[in-house]
Specification:
Blueprint (H helix, E strand, L loop, with lengths): L1 E3 L5 E7 L8 H19 L4 E6 L2 H8 L2 H13 L2 E7 L23 H17 L7 E5 L10 H25 L3 E5 L10 H8 L7 E6 H6 L4 H11 L3 E6 L1 E5 L6 H5 L10 E2 L5 E2 L2 H5 L7 E7 L10 E2 L1 H12 L8 E4 L16 H21 L11
Parallel strand pairs: 2-3, 2-14, 3-4, 4-5, 5-6, 6-7, 7-8, 8-14
Antiparallel strand pairs: 1-2, 9-12, 9-13, 10-11, 10-12
Helix pairs in contact: 1-12, 2-4, 4-5, 6-8
Length: 385
């Protein structure tokens, strides 16, 4: 969807397709018909934006085949879909047996991560609508926090320099601007906006910046206004926003049985408290008997409350979006709803059919759209098909 800011600029709102991942091009196109088109029809909009996820082999194949990208763009357009942003965080889908930390590899100290991201940029430059100001790619926050030594940090810094050079070369060739956004996440080298300001202030910030995931911001117990001010002071732009909410418990000892229902084997659910608790997964936190409050890195549907007495951090989400879009100019124009945990919700909350999942995605987007309109945006912009 496209929204208009009072300054006249376009703000793009879509959803990330890692909620229903496919690992090859035919599968990706099939997902458009199964999920994206039904979502667009439920919302009643002429064009719906997708935060497309492409596994590394698919990205490499498309980057080397302009005709294949042209066909993909035609498939999108025929269905009233468009792409201005890609999710470049997961390199490939989770493989069985699941190793939860695998999503952080290859990291930015390894050449495969640079190659994958430049492949994505090459593809995105060709998929962008003609009237889109720019494209964006979200990526992991450099690396998992261990090992984070001087050689690893230097290799990451070198990769970011090569990335900026590659994006500049792409812009000269294609005339399209693509920026890359590093997404602070609990447990990583960049977990907070303070770390983002420290590690990204020396890179080419005309092409590189931050993807502000609002669930992660909540888990870091950061105040949105202070966080954005910190990034502004360091000259680090917010290139992309993941519109997401985390799981919260005000009394985790009393809520332990309910929280146990959110323990699952596929994703890490890092858990943080303002008093210092910091665990890499929810089951580890439950073994501490810490009295909280807790926020859990578990993206919950925006429009639906978690199992009581748990709640979602939608208050942080609202405060952050107010800071981002309610000023004289939008601080970010690429907003992506990213609730990839639909498939691992407790059974009573989990969609059982593709139609139910499409309905849930549509409801989340409607929630985000309605919230943004209360913050001053208008839903009056139609895309060029």
């Amino acid at each position: 969807m496209r929204l208009r800011h009072p300054d006249g600029s376009t703000v793009h709102l879509g959803y990330c397709t890692n909620v229903h991942p496919a690992e090859d091009l035919p599968g990706i196109v099939a997902q458009f018909d199964t999920y994206a088109v039904p979502v667009r029809e439920r919302l009643g909009v002429p064009v719906l934006g997708l935060g497309l996820w492409l596994a590394a082999p698919v990205a490499a194949g498309l980057a080397a085949d302009r005709m294949a990208v042209h066909r993909l763009r035609a498939e999108l357009s025929a269905r009233g879909l468009e792409v201005v942003t890609l999710n470049g965080f997961p390199y490939q889908a989770f493989q069985a047996p699941v190793v939860k930390h695998a999503v952080y590899y290859p990291d930015w100290s390894e050449p495969e991560r640079l190659r994958y991201t430049l492949d994505l940029a090459e593809v995105l430059a060709q998929l962008l609508p003609e009237d889109a100001a720019r494209g964006s790619i979200s990526t992991l926050p450099l690396a998992w926090r261990t090992p984070w030594d001087a050689p690893t940090r230097q290799r990451c810094h070198n990769s970011l320099g090569a990335l900026a050079d590659g994006l500049a070369a792409l812009e000269r060739r294609s005339g399209r601007t693509v920026r890359v956004a590093f997404e602070p996440e609990p447990g990583c080298a960049i977990e907070s906006t303070a770390q983002a300001a420290d590690l990204l202030s020396t890179v080419d910030t005309s092409r590189l910046g931050v993807c502000l995931d609002l669930a992660h911001l909540a888990c870091a117990w950061e105040d949105p206004r202070e966080a954005l001010g910190r990034l502004d002071a360091a000259g680090v732009p917010v290139v992309k926003v993941q519109v997401s909410a985390a799981l919260e418990s005000t009394d985790p000892v009393a809520d332990a049985q309910v929280l146990q229902g959110y323990v699952e084997p596929r994703f890490l659910h890092q858990t943080r408290s303002p008093s210092g608790l910091a665990t890499d997964d929810l089951d580890e936190a439950l073994s501490t008997m810490d009295d909280g409050p807790w926020r859990v890195h578990y993206h919950v549907p925006l429009h639906a409350e978690p199992i009581p007495p748990l709640r979602a951090t939608t208050g942080v989400l609202t405060d952050a979006l107010r800071e981002i879009v309610s000023g004289p100019a939008a601080r970010c124009d690429h907003l992506d709803v990213e609730t990839y945990t639909w498939g691992v919700l407790p059974p009573t909350r989990r969609p059982s059919t593709p139609d139910e999942l499409a309905g849930g995605i549509a409801a989340e987007l409607a929630y985000a759209r309605d919230l943004l309109t209360t913050l001053g945006l208008t839903h009056t912009v139609e895309a060029t098909r």
